[in-house]
Amino acid sequence: MKTWMHQPRNIDVSHYVDRYWWLEVGESDSGYEPALLIPNPNANLIFTLPTQQYSYHQEQQELVGQGSHLLHLCSKAISINDQGSIIRLGIKFKAGALYALFGIEGSETQNTVTSDLSLLHPSFTLANIRQLIDTDYASDKQADQIKYSVDNVIERLDNLFSQVIQLAKEDRHSILVRDALSLLADNSSVGIETKLFCSRRTLERAFLRVTGVSIKQYEMMMRLDAVLMYIFKNLTDPKNDTRITEPDWADIAQYFGFSDQPHLIRQLKQAIGHTPNKYLNTRNLIIDVYGDFE
């Protein structure tokens, strides 16, 4: 399995795009297990071969199709049921970016897929996508050649999205939410409306309109993502998938801002269907696989 991820080098593009990522799984990669995409507010534009099938399962809903597509924000966990060889070149957008770039209100499209990318931008043509996912750069080459080729793809993506952002339309809602998201990166949402010089109701309505989730939902998504990455990085040995320590869940709950251990367990089980201990025992790949490769 081959992966890489990289932030945009174009500063203007980075206002809307969180990172670019590559996922390639060959027939011989028998150790690759279907992953779970945890609830998150980030949409992913996925470029792939026109014959490449995709399958996402969410509770009673099945999202299937083939070719490049836009996976909108997920308010519920989605099982990624890819089969066989996989090539994915992804663009992980920042929360609310689709509103400014394409006029998409998140609350109307969450937990859905857009398969006709021409509806988003005229640059998303089959020819342009084929250029970007030319697998020559992902084949077994010398390290310096691979680095050069990946750099070339990043440059092409920056150029492509430099065109896309020219059509971006910022309004008072998107500007307010962007400022709110900047504050939420390091602060609780309590009282941030005073720093933004607006009422709480105005902020809540704009946030839901632009991102598709409430401020409370957004904070919980970010908190759970941080907990899962902490578990993934610190509590298991990546070489043999065994525990390296017996965690104190009460301390972990307090550190990540949950009211107590039962609160953490309830939220985690609701998000991924597992308690923390069960996750440690099964070691399924339950991370934000589209954009967070570890």
UniProtKB/TrEMBL annotation:
<feature type="domain" description="HTH araC/xylS-type">
    <location>
        <begin position="199"/>
        <end position="282"/>
    </location>
</feature>
<dbReference type="GO" id="GO:0003700">
    <property type="term" value="F:DNA-binding transcription factor activity"/>
</dbReference>
<keyword id="KW-0804">Transcription</keyword>
<dbReference type="InterPro" id="IPR018060">
    <property type="entry name" value="HTH_AraC"/>
</dbReference>
<dbReference type="Pfam" id="PF12833">
    <property type="entry name" value="HTH_18"/>
</dbReference>
<keyword id="KW-0238">DNA-binding</keyword>
<dbReference type="InterPro" id="IPR050204">
    <property type="entry name" value="AraC_XylS_family_regulators"/>
</dbReference>
<dbReference type="GO" id="GO:0043565">
    <property type="term" value="F:sequence-specific DNA binding"/>
</dbReference>
<dbReference type="InterPro" id="IPR046532">
    <property type="entry name" value="DUF6597"/>
</dbReference>
<dbReference type="InterPro" id="IPR009057">
    <property type="entry name" value="Homeodomain-like_sf"/>
</dbReference>
<protein>
    <submittedName>
        <fullName>AraC family transcriptional regulator</fullName>
    </submittedName>
</protein>
<keyword id="KW-0805">Transcription regulation</keyword>
<dbReference type="Pfam" id="PF20240">
    <property type="entry name" value="DUF6597"/>
</dbReference>
